[in-house]
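Course exercise 7: structure representation. Students receive a sequence record and must write out the corresponding structure in token form. The form below is the worked example handed out in class, using Oxidoreductase (327 residues). Read each field label carefully; the graders check that inputs and outputs are placed in the correct fields and that the protein name is recorded exactly as given.

STUDENT ID: A-19
EXERCISE PROTEIN: Oxidoreductase
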Amino acid sequence: MSAFRALRIDKTDDGQTVSVVDFPESELMEGDVVVRVTHSTVNYKDGLAITGKSPVVRRFPMIPGIDFAGVVTASESPEYKAGDEVVLNGWGVGETHLGGYAECARVKGDWLVPLVDGLSAADAMAVGTAGYTSMLCVMALERHGVTPERGPVLVTGAAGGVGSVAIALLAKLGYHTVASTGRPEEGDWLKALGASEIIHRDELAAPGKPLQKEKYAGVVDSVGSVPLANAIAQTKSGGAVAACGLAAGMDLPTSVAPFILRGVSLLGVNSVTVPKPIRIEAWGRLARDLDREKLASITKTISFDEIVPTANAIIDGKVRGRVVVEI
Ligand code: NDP
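STUDENT ANSWER:
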């Protein structure tokens, strides 16, 4: 392929432009593996990149798309050969390194993981960074000793990508899950996914005391800000909160009280630079612990041309569950 179809972000004096282009293969960045990309996805961070709402893109021109799945076409890495099916999420792809909204990508072999048995490339992108991060959050809670017997687990941003996959995973693992959403009309859908209870996100939206009634053994939070502060305040003694997102804001208006008086732990989750053994463990767990019918029920498939409108919709909180892009 001397040139291939790609979405390209260019920086201009007025901000940025996003266009579909024929991208020359000679302009791909350094890497030892070339992949024919078959599927990608739209995460919140992709929405930030394409709308330019936050400066997640650090190099221009940029091909956005923080995730992709596809087939190796050429490799100088001892770990991969032509024909291998691979998945990539993170490592600055779509931010500092040309990303997944393109028919072709060249990356470091170290960034790839083999497509796990039991998942198709489309399934892997239905999971994507959002679902993979949900798995990392659940693994963080497990490592902390949060078990179904300890009590309910709260999931914020429940109708979003991270939230919906977290609910499906936690339900399969036997947890009583409480889904916090601003979209009560999605209540039946969330219950079908495995949510035991639904609360309106307004219940967590107003600034509250740092210590409130103890309700949750664990929390998976993708929204940050005041809702995260309230979730921490409602976590039981010895419980843990896995925090991965900022859909409500970057701030965290709380005090040390929950940490020093209740021994609550705040577990930060960063999916971008996770060491390979943990990546492989997380993808293996996803293949085992994520109900495929539920994954299908939260997933919408779109074409390449629908990436930009979907990126706008995700920033407006209008995307339900996960989105797969057929490249
Ligand atoms: P989505 O847009 O799919 O989900 C976010 C959800 O948050 C929305 O669906 C909505 O849920 C809720 N929400 C949106 N705005 C607000 C608000 N103002 N107040 C409260 N809740 C709100 O995004 P993703 O699931 O892809 O990502 C979620 C977050 O996690 C993002 O901030 C993203 O950057 C972060 N993230 C971080 C990663 C990491 O490595 N740390 C990896 C992946 C994601 P509802 O409609 O149910 O209320």
